[in-house]
Design a protein that fits this description.
nine-stranded parallel sheet; globular; Amidohydrolase; Amidohydro-rel
């Protein structure tokens, strides 16, 4: 197994939400660069504050820290919203933003006055996606949730989902029949890709198709402009490896140019830096062992043991660095 710091890597999915240098110090230690993804999460700092944190810490460090911007959903049903969103994207791109994030609040929480949910393929967002396609600006899309979200907690396949949806019942769709269903989210996202065949799109979290790699493959075949990231879904790959290790290896070999590594670590200012650092080290080292060795492994995330994938170094370099550079047009 090559050492984890043996070549430069990119964690292309972090949330740099705290005004401290700990993630960059960890990145230096493990030979990583970082991409911080601004997201309109209610308990995150404001999206303007997230942008400022990424820019200020990038300027102060010799470790590359890129960031993806996002747009506010405030006044999204007003006539001038799309124009103001495009103006913000232009301004943020001029200041270094590598792409634009669209989060699950589109489809899971933003409602019209009549109670209907805003979905990604609705007319309000169409001018923005058209602009992004025309300008070839990457879109980072988190639509829907893992399919586990629509199951009872005890039937979910990985521990992280059981913990997350137990702690966030507002997003546990098993309890909310009045909300759009799992297929509604996937079909709305696919409709955007059908409508915009040249849109550079990264389906975050294995494009919310983590439960079935055949479904991911179907989308990658259907949409040549689509890539996927692994953020917070490698535990699902543990599950698949326990069931059929070779199918996971085949997936990485076939789509080695379209898979991007990320952890989704949140630098939460409400937690000690030491706690965040320990969790990030745990993720980086466990993922590295899984992807680079053929060792028997166990994880509290899944009930069965599994074996590492032992991917070739050429594929590892793509997943860990080259694909992020290509899809996000990183300098």
């Amino acid at each position: 197994m090559p050492a984890i710091d043996s070549f430069p890597k990119i964690d292309a999915h972090v949330h740099y939400n705290a005004d401290r240098p700990n993630l960059l110090e960890m990145a230096r230690r493990f030979n990583f660069s970082l991409v911080s993804i601004n997201t309109e999460v209610p308990d995150f700092p404001s999206i303007e504050k997230q942008r400022q944190l990424a820019q200020s810490h990038s300027a102060e460090s010799d470790i590359p820290l890129h960031y993806a911007t996002t747009v506010s959903s405030e006044h999204i049903f007003s006539d001038g919203w799309a124009k103001s969103a495009i103006t913000k994207i232009k301004n943020d791109r001029a200041e270094g933003a590598i792409g634009v994030k669209f989060w699950k609040n589109i489809g899971m929480s933003i409602r019209r006055t009549d109670g209907s949910f805003l979905m990604p393929d609705d007319p309000e967002l169409e001018p923005v996606f058209s602009f992004l396609e025309e300008e070839q600006i990457p879109v980072l899309g988190h639509q829907g949730e893992p399919k586990n979200c629509w199951l009872p907690v005890e039937e979910m396949t990985v521990k992280s989902d059981r913990e997350y949806f137990s702690a966030h019942p507002e997003y546990h769709m098993y309890k909310h029949d009045e909300y759009p269903g799992y297929r509604d989210h996937i079909e709305a996202r696919d409709a955007v890709l059908d409508r915009h065949p040249n849109l550079r799109f990264v389906g975050l979290h294995l494009a919310s198709l983590e439960w079935n790699l055949d479904k991911v493959e179907q989308r990658l075949e259907r949409y040549p402009n689509l890539a996927v990231d692994l953020a917070e879904r490698i535990t699902h790959l543990y599950y698949h490896a326990a069931e059929n290790r070779q199918s996971v290896i085949d997936f990485f070999e076939k789509y080695q140019d379209r898979i991007i590594y990320g952890t989704d670590i949140i630098n939460d200012p409400g937690q000690p830096a030491k706690t965040i650092n320990e969790e990030l080290e745990r993720r980086w080292t466990a993922h590295w062992e899984f992807l680079t060795t053929d060792r028997p492994m166990e994880s509290e995330q899944v009930r069965k043991s599994f074996q590492g994938l032992a991917l070739p170094e050429a594929i590892l370099e793509k997943i860990y660095r080259l694909n992020a550079e290509k899809w996000y047009q990183l300098e």
